[in-house]
Design goal:
498 residues, alpha/beta, TIM Barrel, 8-stranded parallel sheet, 3-stranded antiparallel sheet, 41% helix, globular
Length: 498
C-alpha cells in the first residue's frame, strides 16, 4: 500500500511539474509574441497566433493525404503519382469499376481506338532512331522515353546512382543536367546526354569559358552519346540555373568548378551567343570538337523566334542544324525557381510542341532535326499524346523522381527532402537504397514504354511513332471532343487521310 501511494504521489508531482513547465513556456511565448514587431497576428494574438503558421505549414500535407481527391492535387495529382509508384514497384496497373478521370474537362486527350486494330502478330516494338547523321559518331537511340536533365547537386548521389543503373537496365538515356558529369552518372553504364548550361559546368576553363580540352575529356567517355546546349528550361525561362549554397559540397564544387558553399548561379544565357547564327556556330564547334550529335534545349515563348531559327538553318545549310531540339514546357521543373517564372513565363508543352514540330516540318527538316518533348509528361497518356503530336522522343525528370520515391513534399529547394532525392543531408540520403530504387527506375521506364505501345496498338498502328494527330481527340469547352488534326493539321503528308 505504501509503495502504491508513493508511485501515485510521484505521478501527481510529475503532473504538476509538467503543468508548471507548460505554463512557464506559455508565459515566455506570450511575452515574446507581444513584444516582437515583425508578425502582426502574433503581436495581437499572442501564443494563439502561432497556430496560424503551424496550420499553414501542415495544410499541404493534410490536403494531400486526407482532403484532396485523387485528381485534384497540383502540380501532380495522386492518381498520376500512384500510377508511377505502382509501375515502379511492379504492382498490377489494372483498375476496377471504371475511370475516375473527368473526361469532360477541356483539353483532355482521348485516343481514337481502331475498329480493326492490328493482330498480336502485327505488333512491333518501337524501332531505334538515329540522331545526328551529320556527326562523326551518330547516336542510335533505342528508346522513345528517356530521363530528362537533373544535375548532380540538385539531386543526391544515391539518386544519380539509382537512375544510372536503372537507365542501363531499361535501355534509356540519362541527361546529366547542367551540373557536369559525375562518376555516378557513369557508374551504371547507361547512355548519357551531357548538358552544357550557361555556366559551362564541367567543361569550363578557369575563367568560366567553354574549354575545348574539357569537351574532349567528356566526349572521350564512350557512354556520352550526345551534347545538349541548354538555352532555357521550364522552371526558369530567361534565368539561369540555381543551386543553393548549402548544396555545394566539396565534391560538387570540384565537378562544377566552384568553391565550397558558393551558390551555383548560372548566367541567364550563353554570353557568346547573341543570335541564331552565333548559336549555330556554337553547335558546330561542339560537334566538331566532340564528334558527337549536338542539340539544344529551350522554352518557347513565341513562334516567331523559332521560325527564324529554321530560316537561319536553311540559309546556312542543313549541316549547321542542331541534331535535336528539346522543347521544355513552361510548367516548371524539379529544382529551385522563382514562382513568377514557373507560373507565368513560357508556353505550355501542349502548345509549344505542336508549334515547333510544324515549323520544323515546313522548313523541310523533319529527318534532320529530332524533336524531344519535356514537361510534366509522366504517364502513358501524356507520352502517347506527345508522340502523336509529332515528338520523336519524350523525356521526364519528375516522373523518374516519383519512381525513386518522391512524395511531392515540395522541399526540393531546401536541402531537406525527406526521401533523400534532392538533399545532401546524409540522414535523409540513407533512406534511398540504390539497389532497391534502381529496380523501380527500370520498371517504371519499361512500363511506360509497354503502355504507350498498347495505346498505339489500340489506335491501329504497329508502334508509337506511327501515331498521328488524327488518332487523338481533344475535349472542347462544350464538352464534345474534336480531332487534334482538325485544329492543328500536320505538315506531315501522313495526315492527309485524316
Amino acid at each position: 500500500m505504501g509503495f502504491a501511494m508513493s508511485v501515485l504521489e510521484g505521478f501527481v508531482l510529475l503532473f504538476f511539474l509538467v503543468i508548471g513547465i507548460a505554463a512557464a513556456v506559455i508565459v515566455v511565448m506570450f511575452v515574446m509574441d507581444r513584444t516582437q514587431t515583425e508578425d502582426a497576428i502574433r503581436r495581437n494574438y499572442p501564443v494563439i497566433g502561432r497556430f496560424r503558421h503551424l496550420f499553414s505549414t501542415l495544410g499541404e500535407f493534410f490536403r494531400q493525404y486526407f482532403f484532396a481527391m485523387d485528381r485534384e492535387e497540383l502540380p501532380f495529382n495522386r492518381a498520376q503519382r500512384e500510377w508511377v509508384k505502382r509501375a515502379g514497384e511492379g504492382e498490377s496497373l489494372t483498375v476496377a469499376f471504371g475511370s475516375t478521370r473527368n473526361l469532360t474537362v477541356p483539353g483532355t486527350p482521348i485516343f481514337v481506338n481502331a475498329a480493326f486494330p492490328p493482330l498480336e502478330a502485327q505488333y512491333a516494338r518501337t524501332a531505334p532512331m538515329v540522331i545526328g547523321p551529320q556527326a562523326e559518331m551518330p547516336f542510335t537511340a533505342r528508346s522513345f522515353f528517356n530521363i530528362s536533365g537533373m544535375s548532380y547537386g540538385a539531386i543526391s548521389k544515391p539518386a544519380v546512382r539509382a537512375l544510372s543503373r536503372g537507365a542501363k537496365e531499361a535501355g534509356v538515356w540519362m541527361n546529366t543536367g547542367e551540373g557536369g558529369l559525375s562518376p555516378y552518372h557513369l557508374e551504371g553504364g547507361c547512355d548519357i546526354v551531357f548538358q552544357i548550361g550557361t555556366a559551362k559546368f564541367g567543361v569550363r576553363d578557369a575563367d568560366g569559358n567553354l574549354s575545348d580540352d574539357k569537351l574532349r575529356e567528356v566526349a572521350a567517355h564512350k557512354q556520352v552519346r550526345m551534347f545538349e546546349i541548354k538555352l532555357a528550361q521550364g522552371a526558369k525561362p530567361g534565368k539561369g540555373g540555381i543551386l543553393p549554397a548549402e548544396k555545394v559540397t566539396k565534391e560538387i564544387a570540384e565537378i562544377r568548378g566552384l568553391k565550397v558553399g558558393q551558390p551555383g548561379i548560372s548566367p541567364n544565357r550563353h554570353a557568346e551567343v547573341d543570335d541564331w547564327d552565333d548559336l549555330l556556330d556554337l553547335i558546330y564547334r561542339v560537334r566538331t570538337v566532340t564528334g558527337k550529335p549536338v542539340g539544344i534545349k529551350t522554352v518557347v515563348g513565341a513562334e516567331e523566334p523559332i521560325a527564324t531559327l529554321f530560316e537561319t538553318i536553311n540559309r546556312r545549310g542543313a549541316e549547321c542544324a542542331p541534331d535535336f531540339i528539346t522543347i521544355d514546357g513552361g510548367e516548371g521543373g524539379t529544382g529551385a525557381a522563382p514562382m513568377p517564372l514557373i507560373d507565368l513565363v513560357g508556353m505550355s508543352i501542349r502548345e509549344a510542341l505542336i508549334a515547333v514540330v510544324d515549323l520544323r516540318d515546313r522548313a523541310g527538316l523533319k529527318e534532320r532535326v529530332r524533336i524531344v518533348a519535356s514537361g510534366k509528361l509522366v504517364n502513358p497518356g501524356d507520352v502517347a499524346w506527345a508522340l502523336a503530336a509529332g515528338a520523336d522522343f519524350v523525356t521526364t525528370a519528375r516522373g523518374f523522381m516519383f519512381s525513386l520515391g518522391c512524395i511531392q513534399a515540395l522541399k526540393c529547394n531546401k536541402n531537406t527532402c525527406p526521401t533523400g532525392i534532392t538533399t545532401h543531408d546524409k540522414r535523409f540520403q540513407q533512406g534511398l537504397v540504390v539497389a532497391a530504387k534502381e529496380k523501380r527506375v527500370t520498371r517504371y521506364a519499361k512500363e511506360i514504354i509497354h503502355e504507350v505501345e498498347t495505346i498505339a496498338h489500340s489506335v491501329g498502328v504497329a508502334e508509337p511513332r506511327m501515331m498521328r494527330r488524327r488518332h487523338v481527340r481533344i475535349v472542347q469547352e462544350n464538352g464534345r471532343s474534336r480531332p487534334l488534326s482538325k485544329d492543328f493539321p500536320s505538315v506531315d503528308h501522313s495526315e492527309a487521310s485524316a
